[in-house]
Amino acid sequence: MPSHYCRKDSTKLYLEQFFQTKQELYREYKNYCDENGFSNLILSNPVFDQTFSELNLALYQPKKDRCDICCGFETKNISEIEYQKHLEKKERARQEKDKDKELAQQEKVYTFCMDLQAVKICPVVNASKIYYKTKLAVHNFTIYDMNTHVCRNYWFNETEADLSAPTFTNFILDFIKDKCTKNIPIILYSDGCCYQNRNCILSNALLNYSIKKKVLIEQKYLEKGHTQMECDAVHSLIERKLKNRNIELPSDYVKLTKEARTKPFPLEVVDVNHDFFLDYADQKNWIYNSIRPGRKVNDPTVTDLRHLKYNFETKLIEYKIDFNEEFQPLPVRSLKYPEIEYNVLHQRRLKIKEIKWKHLQEIKCVLSKDCHSFYDNLLH
C-alpha cells in the first residue's frame, strides 16, 4: 500500500494493517517458510529486519489520534511557549469554523469540509492466498455540507485516477458546481495537505470559477494535528459498514457506502471513471504561477497559509498566515486573465505495474467468476 499521509515525501510501501510489530511479521515469515518447505533457509531476525528496510517497506500505521506537538510537550521535547502558541492556533481555527458553520445554518454562506479517507485495497476476502499479493489501491474523497448534512463520496481506484492535485481539484469543483445554487460566499475547510487542497492548481481553478460565477470563495485550514471535521464521522460510518465484508471489486465500496447512512438521508456516492477529469494543471489557464506568500529565504511558505480568499472583483488571491491578521494580496504578480478552456486529463485508464497485474490474476481463483473480466482488462 502507498503511504496515506505523506505520499509526496515518502516512497515507502506499507504492508496491509495485519501486524502491529515487526516481531509479529517475523513469526508469520517463519511459519510461511516452515509450511512451504523452506525451514533450512529461514533468515535470522536481524537479517530479516535489515532486508525489510532495504526493500523500503514499513508496517502500515493508521492515522494518529494525537498531535505530535501535544505529545512532544508531554515528553518535555516541546517548550511551554511553543505549546501555548499551538493551542491558541488550534482554538482560533475552531472558533473560525464554528462561526462559519453558524453562518451556513443561517444560509448566509456555504460551508463545506473535505478530506480523503484512509486508503483501501481491492480485493479483500478471507483467504490466506491473497495476503502475499499486491492489490489495487482504492480511495474515497469526501465533501460534507455543514448546513444540510449532504455528503458526497468520490470513490476511485488507481486505474481511474492518481493522487495528484488535479484529481482533487475536479472533485471540489464538481461538488461546488452542483451544490452552490445561490450566489453567496463559499467557504472550504480542510487540513493542510498540499497535494489535496493547498496548491497552485486548485487555487487557480477556484479563482477562475470565482471570476466566472462572480462569487467569493475562501479556503481555511485547520491546525495540524487537530483537523477533526464532520466528514471524519462519515468515514467512521463507512468503516463500520465495511467491517468483515468481502470486497471483490472496487464498485463494492460504492454499494456499501450507499448503505452506510440512512438518516437524515443516504450518503451521495460517485463511482469515478477516468473520463470524469479535466486538466486543471494546464498552466495556460492559470492566473498565478505560485501561491507562496513570501519571496525571500525565511519568508512564509505555502505550508504557512491559513486562509485564502479568491476575490472575483479584483481577480486576485489574498491570504492570511494567521486568522487574526488582515488579508494581503499574494506577492506573486498575477498573469493576464486567460480564456479558460480545460482539456481532458486522462485519455484512457491508467496502467498498473505488471507485477501487480500478475498478482491480481493469481488472486482470481478465490473470487467470483463474474469479477474475473474486470481484472483481466486492467492496463499494465
UniProtKB/TrEMBL annotation:
InterPro entries per the record? Answer: DUF7869
| Keyword list, A-Z | Coiled coil
Q: Which domain of life is it from?
A: Eukaryota
Signal peptide interval: none
Keyword Coiled coil included in the entry's annotation: yes
- Coiled-coil stretches: 76-107
* Domain (DUF7869): residue spans on this chain: 168-302
* Name of the protein described by the UniProt record: DUF7869 domain-containing protein
